Amino acid sequence: MQNLERMRELIQTIKEADEAYYKYDAPIMADLDYDRLYDELAALERETGTILSSSPTQRVSGEVLESLTAVRHTRPMLSADKCKSVADIHKYLGGHEAVLSWKLDGLTLVLRYENGKLAQAITRGDGLQGEDVTHTVRIMKNVPLVIPCKEPLEVRGEGVISWKEFHALNGTLDEPYAHPRNLAAGSVRKLNAEEVRERGLSFMAFDLISDNLGGSTKWETLRFLAQMGFTTVGYSILAAGASEEAVRQAMDFYQPKEYAYPTDGLIFEFNDLAYGRSLGATGHHENRMTAFKWPDTRYETKFRRLEVATTRTGMISLTAVFDDVVIDGTTVNHAYLHNLDNFTRLALGPGDTISVYKANMIIPQIAENKTKSGGCPLPDVCPCCGSTLVVRQSSGGTRQLYCDNEACPARLVRKFVHFCSKTRMEIKGLDEQTLTTFVQHGWVKNYGDLYELERHKEEILKTPGFGEKSFARLQKAVDERRTCTLNQFIAALGIPEVGRHAGRILNRKFGGSWDAFERAILDQFDFTQLEDFGQVMNDNIYCWYSDEEEAKLWRPALNHITFLKEETTMPEAQNNPFAGKTVVATGKLENYTRDGIQMKLLSLGARPASSVSKKTDYLIVGENAGSKLTKAQTLGVTTLTEQQFLQMLADAGIEA
Ligand SMILES: [Zn+2]
């Protein structure tokens, strides 16, 4: 266990060093020290037989799927029955020893291991059948990809996002998620795994499915999982014969408001697994455990009105506004209604008596409407452009209202916000409020207009909050973005599924040239040839490009922008035979450590990869090369000895 702790520590340290080196170009560690830590980690991985998904010795590339495949569970996943009071739990336990743990609120997952390797990850789904999400689970923060136990086994656990990561990430999204659970579920089920990498998803193990492993008690099972390298859910033991007061005290240790992860209760499970099994199961739940849910304190107030807004995608968001209530020390007066079904169910009308609560003690929700006057009509036109709204069913089965008018100013504002945002074109000072004003006045109708604000200077100066100084500041911010990289611009365009990562790949492919990118589209280039590009992204690019209304928005910007080649700090990155090539190194090399060769390849502008595929350009072969060499030969990939590699560098005038 100490080894596993040390491994987690090393992974964190190496990750920080990598970030400093690659992302900020400001190394915080000497190469020698780096190699030493790296080697220590690799040695520990060999010793423990465990490799975690975030380990730098693995470069798990983000796969892109066309769709998720349905998979049947080996055993039905039932839920736990619920107890509503401490007295109920005390009675349920009947004096038996139990394990008490958090009931995490995320997405339940099953991980299958075969021969000590993660073979498949499946969502809970309806309990009988789930979906294969191996591609995203493989790049979660803490999933063991390799475990020392070689027997087949299944681990159940929860895919979760901490409150901290949730708040940080939500701030960068156009349409924030209501709860970390939705974000976790949405992320795990994404087709493009790469988009999930930075989301900080964790897997918390809570159960083992195996006939003979893990011992005879729940406690031993959790210990076993920890030894295999899993992060287990937080738990404690409740002694046999515990009084009701002792149960209450044990529960008091669990304070959801102080916990890093979202939780919706506690789980009590009999420590003696054989006893638990002897209690059997109903069609719905297993009797070996019970769940306790903290009651939400409800507060009564009066509903006043419905607030309606149009989002970037055209979806209409519905928010209930009510009289102030103080919950947990904060004043609350509005609650997002999520969807049309919820709105219909509540039958709200002005003056209705409603009860509200904070879901998971954080997010305001309406629990029920006691008077249901239904006096609040559903909006039938867009609050922004007046177009008739349409009802659409989401993939999750809920209904939403949409404004289908492509030219709707509200959608336009959202698009501008996206274009100017920090992680896209990053035009400082053009926040949502300012852009709303500019769009409403018609000063900006397309992205090109952003570069011609001078024309409306007099009018802009008359709007509240603007003076000569702030206008000059804005002009400066805009001027700074008359040059940008191709990846920035592509990411800013808001092509569905084509974000920053895809932008970087396109930037690399087309050498930072917009013309080359556009020519490729006109030549019907197949984008699925590119790393991490699936059919959906390919189709989205063509669909976006052929949309004439969209083109009116972005094309004018091209008259104002000069595309920069992305700066490379390494001058040798261009003129050498490995620039832009995918290169794999295998076996023991004489002149490089395993990471040393990766860094060398990066400095050459090559793409180091961990496994050989059809897309591999070169395989550098060291001593004791194994299956990668065989695979390269089968696929006809060019192989190089270390000497040949060094010779090619020398020929290009580059030092080894
Ligand atoms: Zn509209």
Name a few traits of the molecule.
alpha+beta, 656 residues, 5-stranded mixed sheet, 5 domains, OB fold (Dihydrolipoamide Acetyltransferase, E2P), flat, single chain, 23% strand, binds zinc ion, D-amino Acid Aminotransferase, Chain A, domain 1
Helix and strand content put the structural class at alpha+beta
- Fourth CATH level, the homologous superfamily of the largest domain: DNA ligase/mRNA capping enzyme
Q: How many domain units?
A: 5
* Morphology call: flat
- Which sequence of strands runs across the widest sheet? 3-14-13-4-12
Unreliable runs = none
User: What percentage of the residues does DSSP assign to strands (E)?
Assistant: 15-25%
Q: Kindly state the mean pLDDT as a whole number?
A: 86
CATH-derived architecture of the largest domain: 2-Layer Sandwich
Radius of gyration using CA atoms only: 28 Å
- CA-to-CA gap between the ends? 40 Å
Q: Just give the CATH class of the largest domain.
A: Alpha Beta
CATH third-tier fold name of the largest domain: D-amino Acid Aminotransferase, Chain A, domain 1
Number of strands: 27
Number of helices: 22
Helix content: 25-40%
Name the hetero compounds present. zinc ion
Describe the largest sheet: 5 strands, mixed
Describe this structure in a few short sentences.
This protein has 656 residues and is an alpha+beta fold. The protein has 22 helices and 27 strands.
3D architecture notes:
The longest helix is centred in the first third of the chain and has 22 residues, at 2-23. The chain is an alpha+beta fold. α1 runs antiparallel to α2. A hairpin with a 2-residue loop joins β5 and β6 (117-123). 33% of the residues lie in helices and 23% in strands. The protein is built from 22 helices and 27 strands. The radius of gyration is 28 Å and the shape is flat. The mean pLDDT is 86. The chain has a five-stranded mixed β-sheet. It folds into five domains: 2-48, Helix Hairpins (Orthogonal Bundle); 70-292, 2-Layer Sandwich (D-amino Acid Aminotransferase, Chain A, domain 1), CATH 3.30.470; 299-403, OB fold (Dihydrolipoamide Acetyltransferase, E2P), CATH 2.40.50.140; 409-564, no CATH class; 571-651, 3-Layer(aba) Sandwich (Rossmann fold). The structure holds zinc ion (ZN). The site of zinc ion has 9 residues, from loops.
